[in-house]
Amino acid sequence: MSSAQPAEAEAASPPHPYHLVNPSPWPALGALGAFIIAFGAVHWWHGGTKLICAAGFVVVLSTMGLWWRDVIREAQRDHAHTDEVQHGLRVGMGLFIASEVMFFVAFFWAFFNSGLLVNPSITQWPPAKIEPLDTWGIPFLNTLILLSSGLCVNWAHHSLRHGDRDGLKKGLALAVALGATFLSLQAYEYGHAAFAFRDGVYPSIFYMATGFHGFHVFVGVCFLSVTLLRSWRGDFTPRQHVGFEAAAWYWHFVDVVWIFLFVWVYWWGS
Q1: Phi/psi class of residue 258: alpha, beta or left (left: φ > 0; alpha: ψ in -120 to 50)?
Q2: pLDDT tens digit string along 77-109?
Q3: CA atoms within a 13 Å half-sphere pointing along the CA-CB vector of 235
Q4: Which of 6, 14, 129, 246 holds its CA 20 to 30 A away from the CA of 83?
Q5: Furthest-apart CA atoms within the chain: distance in Å
């Protein structure tokens, strides 16, 4: 009896270290939510109700949360994240960040195309009627805040790798607080800007680039908050913490993009 059990267990284990995921409704549901958002936005912009677009966002956000829950269960309950699976997750996160880099390249391209190749209707950059924001006010303060949050994430990562769970929690908590402070100051900055989105090419590019970066900061704060909750639960170990690494990589990407925005949009662009 006892000799048969190891043989049965060996026969039941997969012949490879990879994780073949179970059928999931979340990809289809997420795509449906994205379609509802697009349809609802068009309907709203043509004088219809906002409720359809809002319903699409509810579907997408719910899908994200439930899908995230399933991935955490795969790691913690099913122990499906072997070394090979972790490597694949890291590669996937790296490719995702690379695609996000190209997303911001488009905004910088538009900014420099307008700033360096000024068309005849624009005699200077920024245009004469635009009063740019004070570079060394809120933008500089937000730069210090965001870079400090990156240092906090590094502190948390160093603590995790050396088994210091207290340092891990403190570092993540500070990073989340600093990220929320950044968003609050950016909202204040938008509310007191001397130009609106439709006031020309400079405001349009400014709000698109900095606004989408602010959205990425919001996503990063959510990512770090989930990572902090998982740290309180004891999910991460010095050997297995690919979820933490993904959050840290994303946050450092947000930091680097902001440095480029500060130097070129806020400083050189003013």
Answers
A1: alpha
A2: 888 888 888 899 999 999 999 999 999 999 999
A3: 23
A4: 6
A5: 88
